[in-house]
Write a structure and sequence with these properties.
The structure holds two protein chains of two kinds. Helix content of chain A is 12%, strand content 46%. By secondary structure, chain A is mainly beta. In chain B, a hairpin with a 5-residue loop joins strand 1 and strand 2. By secondary structure, chain B is mainly α. Chain B folds into two domains: 123 residues, Potassium Channel Kv1.1, Chain A (2-Layer Sandwich); 37 residues, no CATH class.
C-alpha cells in the first residue's frame, strides 16, 4: 500500500495527544520537523480544543521543586509525577517559594519570591525567563495568563495596589510576550473589588470568582477580564452558591468547558460545566458525590479523569484519585513533599513560549 | 418513496455500481460537483476511478446512517446517536483498512467522515511504539542511530506505557 500524502498525515497527527507526538518525533526527520513546527502546534491545539476528546490535562503542584502530575496514569507509575526542570528552579534552595501566575494553552507561568518569572511548558520543557515587572509580585492579588487572539500573543496580567514609586494605587500590570514589555493600566473600577489567585483563561477572557454584596445578601460572582478590550466584565452571579454550608468554590477549565467545583460542608462535592452555544451559556452538572468518607475538610476536587475518577487535592498535602463508585482513594507518591502546596490544572500542548 | 430522479449511481474502480439516494451522495463534494457540471444530462453515473468497492460501500453506509439519524433526531440528540453509530461503524473496520478509507474519503471530499477516520487512526496509533507507527504508515527511518538516540533522550518519559497489541 502506498504512503499517505503528507497533508493527510498532518490531519491525523493533529488529532494525536501531546505525549505520543513527542514520542513520534523519532519516527523520521519529516515527522520530527512537523511536530516541532509552531504552526502545527497551533493546529494541534485547535483540534484538541474543538472537542474535549483530545484534551489532556495535568496538575501542577507548587511544591519545592514544582511537580507536574499526569493523573491519567495509575498512582503507582513512577512517571506519573515529574519535577519541573529548569536552571531557575534547580538553582534555588529547598526553602524558596514558588507561586503560579496562571496557565493557558499548555503554557504555565511561575514566579518566585525574588520576582523572577518563568513562562513555558512543563511538557516540552521549553521555558523562557521574562523580565521582572516594576512592581513587586508579592503585592499582587488577582493574576493570570491569557491568549489574545487579535494579536496572536500571550499576555500576563496582575493587579496590585502599589506603583513603581511606592505610591499606593490600584492598577493592572500587563505583560505582552512578543514585545517582552510590561505596562500599567489605571482606572479600572472593578479592580478595587477583591478577587484573588490565578484567573482561569477561557473563551478569550480571564475569569475569577469573588464574593460580592448583592443587596443584603453576599453572593459568589464570576468576574472576567477581556484581554482584547482590556475591560472587566461581570459574567454571572451564582446566587444559589453562597451560604454557611459552602466550604469551597473553584473555577477550572478544560477544552471548551469552564468548570465550577463546589464543596458543600458535611455533604458532597459537585462540579458543573458551563457550555457556550453561540451567545448562550448554560451550566450542567458534571458529577456529585458524597465525601463523608474523606478525612478532614478542605479537600478540593480538581478534575475528572477519562475513567471517571475524581482528582482530589487533599488539604494541600496529598494528591489522589477518588473512585466514586468503589469509594476508594489512591494517592500519588509526591516524594518528600514538606510544604502545603497549591494545585493547578493545566492542559497539555506543543505551544512554545520561545516562538513569540 | 423517493423517485429515481433522486438517485445517483456511484461506480467503483472495479466497475461495481452502487445506487444511492441523492440525499446521501450529496455529502460527497466530488459527486456534487460532477453532477453540477453535467446538469441536465439524464446520465447520473459518477465514476470514482481510484476508489475500491469496499470503501465505496463503507462510505455509503456511513452517510446513509448519518442522513437517517439526522432526520430521526431533528429535535435533538443527533450528535449523541451519531457518536454511537460511529463507534459501531469503526469497530467493523480493520485497522489497516482505515488508511485506504481515509484516502478514499479524502478523494471524495467528505468532511464529516474524514474527521471521523483521521481521529480513529490517531486513537489507534496513540499508544503504539515508534517501530509500529513506521510499519503502519510504511515510513523509512532516516535518522542515524546517534540522532535517534538523542531525540529519544529528549523526551524519554514519552516512551513509557507503549502497547503494540
Amino acid at each position: 500500500m502506498s504512503q499517505l500524502p503528507h497533508r493527510i498525515i498532518v490531519e491525523i497527527l493533529s488529532r494525536v495527544l501531546v505525549k505520543p507526538l513527542l514520542r513520534f518525533k523519532s519516527v523520521c526527520k519529516l515527522w520530527d520537523s512537523l511536530i516541532s513546527d509552531p504552526q502545527f502546534a497551533k493546529l494541534q491545539l485547535r483540534q484538541s480544543m474543538a472537542d474535549n476528546k483530545n484534551t489532556c490535562c495535568r496538575v501542577l503542584l507548587m511544591t519545592w521543586p514544582p511537580k507536574s502530575v499526569d493523573f491519567e496514569e495509575s498512582t503507582d507509575n513512577v512517571n506519573a509525577v515529574r519535577n519541573l526542570s529548569h536552571p531557575m528552579i534547580i538553582e534555588h534552595s529547598l526553602s524558596c517559594f514558588y507561586g503560579i501566575i496562571g496557565s493557558c494553552n499548555g503554557l504555565v507561568c511561575l514566579y518566585d519570591e525574588f520576582n523572577n518569572i518563568l513562562l513555558g511548558s512543563p511538557t516540552t520543557r521549553d521555558y523562557r525567563e521574562l523580565p521582572k515587572p516594576t512592581g513587586s509580585l508579592n503585592h499582587m492579588f488577582g493574576h493570570g495568563l491569557g491568549y489574545n487572539s487579535s494579536i496572536d500573543d500571550y499576555q500576563i496580567v496582575f493587579a496590585s495596589k502599589i506603583k513603581a514609586d511606592g505610591f499606593r494605587e490600584t492598577g493592572f500590570n500587563i505583560f505582552t510576550l512578543r514585545t517582552s514589555t510590561w505596562r500599567r493600566i489605571q482606572g479600572l473600577n472593578s479592580v478595587a473589588v477583591s478577587f484573588e489567585g490565578p484567573g482561569t483563561f477561557w473563551n478569550g477572557r480571564l475569569h475569577w470568582l469573588r464574593i460580592i454584596q448583592n443587596g443584603t445578601q453576599r453572593v459568589f460572582n464570576i468576574v472576567s477580564f477581556d484581554l482584547q478590550e482590556e475591560k472587566f466584565k461581570d459574567v454571572l452571579t451564582l446566587t444559589e452558591y453562597y451560604g454557611s454550608d459552602i466550604f469551597l468554590l473553584e473555577l477550572g477549565t478544560s477544552g471548551k468547558w469552564l468548570y465550577l467545583f463546589c464543596e458543600k460542608r458535611y455533604s458532597h462535592f459537585e462540579a458543573f460545566v458551563m457550555e457556550v452555544n453561540g451567545n448562550r451559556a448554560a451550566w450542567s452538572r458534571l458529577f456529585k458525590f458524597p465525601h463523608d468518607r474523606f478525612p478532614g475538610y478542605g479537600s478540593m476536587a480538581l478534575h475528572l479523569t477519562k475513567s471517571g475518577q475524581v482528582v482530589v487535592n487533599f488539604n494541600g498535602w496529598q494528591l489522589g484519585l477518588y473512585n466514586p463508585k468503589q469509594v476508594t482513594v489512591e494517592y500519588f507518591d509526591l516524594g518528600n513533599c514538606l510544604n502545603e502546596f497549591e494545585a493547578h490544572v493545566y492542559g497539555e500542548s506543543l505551544i512554545s513560549s520561545n516562538n513569540y | 418513496m423517493a423517485s429515481t430522479d433522486d438517485k445517483v449511481i456511484l461506480k467503483s474502480s472495479e466497475g461495481e455500481c452502487f445506487e444511492v439516494d441523492m440525499a446521501v451522495a450529496s455529502h460527497l463534494q466530488i459527486v456534487k460537483s460532477v453532477l453540477e457540471d453535467c446538469e441536465g444530462s439524464s446520465d447520473k453515473v459518477v465514476s470514482l476511478f481510484i476508489v475500491e468497492a469496499k470503501y465505496v460501500a463503507m462510505i455509503i453506509e456511513y452517510y446513509k446512517n448519518y442522513v437517517e439519524l439526522k432526520e430521526k433526531h431533528e429535535e435533538g440528540g443527533f450528535e449523541e446517536k451519531l457518536k454511537e453509530f460511529e463507534k459501531q461503524f469503526l469497530e467493523q473496520i480493520d485497522k489497516k483498512e482505515l488508511k485506504g478509507l481515509v484516502m478514499a474519503v479524502n478523494y471524495l471530499n467528505a468532511p464529516a467522515l474524514f474527521d471521523v477516520v483521521c481521529t480513529a487512526i490517531a486513537k489507534h496509533i496513540e499508544n503504539k511504539s515508534v517501530e509500529y507507527v513506521r510499519e503502519y504508515f510504511g515510513i523509512v527511518n532516516d535518522f542515524t542511530a546517534e540522532e535517534e538516540a538523542q531525540i529519544r533522550e529528549e523526551h524519554r518519559w514519552a516512551y513509557d506505557g507503549v502497547n503494540d497489541d
